[in-house]
Every structure is written in C-alpha cells, then in structure tokens.
Amino acid sequence: xxxxxxxxxxxxxxxxxxxxxxxxxxxxxxxxxxxxxxxxxxxxxxxxxxxxxxxxxxxxxxxxxxxxxxxxxxxxxxxxxxxxxxxxxxxxxxxxxxxxxxxxxxxxxxxxxxxxxxxxxxxxxxxxxxxxxxxxxxxxxxxxxxxxxxxxxxxxxxxxxxxxxxxxxxxxxxxxxxxxxxxxxxxxxxxxxxxxxxxxxxxxxxxxxxxxxxxxxxxxxxxxxxxxxxxxxxxxxxxxxxxxxxxxxxxxxxxxxxxxxxxxxxxxxxxxxxxxxxxxxxxxxxxxxxxxxxxxxxxxxxxxxxxxxxxxxxxxxxxxxxxxxxxxxxxxxxxxxxxxxxxxxxxxxxxxxxxxxxxxxxxxxxxxxxxxxxxxxxxxxxxxxxxxxxxxxxxxxxxxxxxxxxxxxxxxxxxxxxxxxxxxxxxxxxxxxxxxxxxxxxxxxxxxxxxxxxxxxxxxxxxxxxxxxxxxxxxxxxxx
Amino acid sequence: xxxxxxxxxxxxxxxxxxxxxxxxxxxxxxxxxxxxxxxxxxxxxxxxxxxxxxxxxxxxxxxxxxxxxxxxxxxxxxxxxxxxxxxxxxxxxxxxxxxxxxxxxxxxxxxxxxxxxxxxxxxxxxxxxxxxxxxxxxxxxxxxxxxxxxxxxxxxxxxxxxxxxxxxxxxxxxxxxxxxxxxxxxxxxxxxxxxxxxxxxxxxxxxxxxxxxxxxxxxxxxxxxxxxxxxxxxxxxxxxxxxx
Lengths: 480, 244
Description:
The complex is a heterodimer. Helices cover about 25% and strands about 30% of the residues of chain A. Chain A contains 12 helices and 20 strands. The N and C termini of chain A lie far apart (about 50 Å). A 6-stranded mixed sheet of chain B has the order 6-9-10-3-11-12, with helices on both faces. In chain B, strands 2-1-4-5 form a 4-stranded antiparallel sheet, covered by helices on one side. Chain B is built from 8 helices and 12 strands. The interface of A and B includes residues 426 and 447 of A.
C-alpha cells in the first residue's frame, strides 16, 4: 500500500462530517476557520500549530491582495479553491506512462529523468519498490548518525516541535504579506532541515531523495536551520509538470543561518508554463527569505526559473549578523506568453555585510520579464557592500525585458554597485554557429548557456547538467 | 567538387552577382581577387548559406544541389567559411564551441562523437602543428581577441573540422606580416589532394604565401578573367580599375 492509499484509509475514520469519499478527500471549498481546523486536525497537529495558523488567518482577513506587480492576472476567488485536497480521484490520474502527454515524456527523456522518477513525478503508483526508496533510507541513516534532521514539515511538527516552534515564522512572520500569510494559515507540507552545530552536511539534500516529497501541496512550507558553524546545500527540483488550469502555488521557504553557518539553496523550477497560446499554467507566487542571524553567516540562493505562467518571487537575505554574506544567482527564462517579475532583496543590517546579485533574464516569444530588486543598507551597517549585475537577453522582437533596481543606502561608509546590460542574440552569431555545423536550437542553447554561465556554475554538478538542458528545452522553437 | 553556373544574387533589390561561373576540383586552390563591392563576400556568404539573398542559378557541391541545403547541412557536408569578421560569443569558451561544433558535424555524419579526452588530444595536436597558443582556447570565443588571434582561431577551427572545401574570406585583412605567415602556413599544411580552397582577397600578398592553382578576377559581379598566379601579379601592377 503506498502512502497515499494509507492516508485515505486513515481518513475514513475521520469523524467531523467532512467528505470522506474514498476517491476524493477534500476539505470543503473555500477558506474558513473550519477548513483550517480541518487541515490541522488531519495532520494531527498540536494546538500551538493550530493557533499559528488561526493567527495567520485572522491577519489574512485584513490583508489586501497586492497589485503592484507587472504581470497582471485575472482575479482569484479564494473561496473557490480547495485548501486541502488529499488524493484526488484515481480516475482523473493517468494510470500508466502510456497515458501521458507524449510531449511531456519527450521532455523527461531529454532531461534524462529515469522512468521510475517520471512515474513518481506524475503521481502514478508504482507497485514495485524502486531503488530510490532504499537509497533514501541509506541516506537517512547516515544523516541521522550526524544528528541531521531531514524530514517533511508534518513529521517535524510531530517529532521536533521545539525546533519548529522556535524558528517557524521568525523569518516570514504570520503578519507578512498577503500570500505568505495565506500560506501560514493553510500550508500543507514541505521540507524541514536542521543541521546541528559544527556539522557539515555530507551530501546535497534534495527533494528528489526525500520520500513522500511528491505529495507536497500547492501551499508548501519549508524551514531550514543551520546551527553554528554548520553547512548545508539544499536542492529543490520542481520539474514536476502540472497540466491543470491556472493554479496558485504559494510556498513559503524560511532559512536561518546562525553564527559561522552557511546555507546554499538551489532551485530549478519548471512548473507547467501554460500552452503556446498562454492558456493554463502555474501562478508561482512564492516567498523565500533567508536570515543570516549569526555573525559570519552566509546564505546563497541560486535559482533557475524556466516554468510557470507567472513567476513572482524575490528570494531574499536579511543580513543581520555582522560580516554576514548574502548571494543571489538567478536565471529566469520566459517564452511564449510566460511572465516573470522576479529578483531579490538584500537587507543589510549588520556591519561589514556583503551581498552579491547576479541576475540573467532571457525573454523569448511574446513573454515579458522583469528584474526587480532591492538593496537596502541600514544606517548601522557600516562598511557594507553590494554588487549587482543584471543582464537581459532578448530573442525576437515581441518580448520584453525590464530592470527596476531599488537602491537605498543609508550609510556613508557603505557602497552599492549596479551594472546592467541588455543584449540580443544576433542573426550573425546564429549564422556563425550554423556555419560550424550547429542547428538553430543547438546554436541558441550554446549562446544562452554562455550567457547564463556565471549562474550555472553556482549549481551543484548534477543539477547544473539538468539545468543546462532545461535552458535549451525551454527556448525550443523560439527562433527561426 | 564545386560547380557554380550562372549564379545571380540580389540583396534588397540590388543585384550583386550577375552570372558567375566557377569550377573547383578536389585538391585545387582557387583565388578570387576583386575590388571592394565586386561581390566577393556575397559569393562566400551564398556558398556557406547565409540567409537574406535572392539567389538564381546552379551550385553543385559533390553532385548535390547546394542551394537546397540549410547552412548547418552545408557545414556537415564539409564546407567551411573562415569569416572575415569572426563573431564574438560571450560566455562561451572557445574549447566548448569547438567541441560542440565538431561533434555536431560528426553526429550529422553518423560518426562517433569525441569525448572530452579525445577532443583535448586532437586540439593539442592541431594547435601545436599550427604553432598556436593553447591559452586562447580557454577564453570566451573571440571576446577580446586581437584581429590576428581571431583569424588564427578561424584557421585552427578549419584544421580541426578538416573540411573538403574551405572558403577564406579576406583572411589576410588586418594581419601583420608575422600573423600572415603563420596563417598561411596553417592553410598550406592542410592542402592535400582531396581538400580544396577558395581564397578571397584584395591583395596579391597572401598569394605569395599560399600559391593558388588558379586566379580569378571578379568585377561587377562576374568573373572577367581567369588564369594562373601570373594573373595576380599583373593585377597588382595595373590595379583593378584599369584591368579589363
């Protein structure tokens, strides 16, 4: 019995009169205190967790949906959504890989994702126990030996309440903005990582390796804590495609680095971008924030954003500890009708804090790309520095690229540098590559990968290869 | 190997080539000389498949209709153009570009692609044969290269891809005497009974180093005279204007 079926079995016993149809277990439509209690109950959460959610919900009722972003979208009816929908009816799901969109399979093939992984990504129950399960267990043992906690958020709430209680909501408070607050009220699951003092995590932690990872919902919540002198590299792969209509994905990710600790967080996001005419696709409205709480701490974000109909996110660093370092490396690609409004915020609070922003935006088709970033150096952050490099690459003449840097320097001893370029792939460059035997797609892929190199180099090896291929695939059909 | 019959080409309604004929056999080196605006670069662009021209006439390359092939397909068949102005591609390592190029061609021909070690071995051998500094290969393609370095890089690419027909579009322009000699030696080392060359130039100077089998004078979109190396010397003496 797989975990999903188990969950269904468990829910059969649920007494509160909500729908318990075996094929379709959902909270009632809409957002209410009752729904939040339902979610909390199903997840067997302690009272403090429920209170956290309810507090967020109270706040949420007062908040207005923001509207300052560049990509506009039709109004979302928040009472028309399901906030908890455990296993959808198995009838709706493809039962075997043969039923899947062949184009999707083609993409997987190009990415080199093994068949079993493909099955898992699509939520197809695979009867045979596949390798990754045992692999994951082996990893888990090794991690446990070093005191590293790596589990789902739900599990952490049960097993490590003291850590969750201490840190959850300290970087993204329940009173934060509209989507983050919504997440605090209704989040379903996500990852939890704790690295104890002085421990260098011996392997890249990845959602790929974590069992049950594929079951996380649209309101994902992740919390990573690196205790003093520790190090962790965390990879988040969102190569899971979704074929639904426009769907809201509002995740919260909080990172906390204590004294001398370092967190490296890498994302390759390839949610369903909608079709060629801009129909469907994910609204990826995610709040990611890292707190360099201790001195000499470091948080580094690397993101490769190729999917989603609309990407609206600013992975940020609050540099509170003296000498702390924040980095943001980003590749964002929009094609067809995709839109992105993405960048970062670097908030310098401590002395001698440094931040670096390298952003590479590529727009093709009729898409629109916006880099929006804030560098804020407070009056107490003496001798702090920021360097920002924003490059945009345009393909064709129907797309757009915009750069809006917000720069606030309240400290005379600190300085901020900003460089920006916009370029276009020229026909001459393509001709040169063609003459050397490369076809259009290969030529574009080569040029674009060159453009993104500084960011791709930041990714862990196994991810870099996938990302590089993804960059090529995302832009397929955008020239010629 | 290559036969061009009554080639006419227009760009933006302007006729540039007006009925050009040329035959190149395996192993031959042909030089095309002509004044500015005579259509020399247009000819090399059309042979290599640059888009934007309205082309009439026949071009056969090893029996195939060249005009029906895409730019990259012509490269796969063994046509190489050494660019007059090689393009810069920021962020792309010269080594990476070369490896991508040779493997794209090998793949198209159904040959086994080179792995990293085989490639490095090949490139090491070729650059030492051509006395080229290998440091250049770790730099971004043509970015910040001097004029001479760019041209040397073209010749290195040519030697690695080992094309059947190499077209050199004013490779001598912008080269100092030493660079000119090195580039010429590079070309000469690639000459053999199978490989053919089409050398496009303004000056006789390059032809002192690369001895052509045939020299053609291109003027107003047509080849007005063909001959041997002596023709180049004559041309240098009287100039293009008075040459008829």
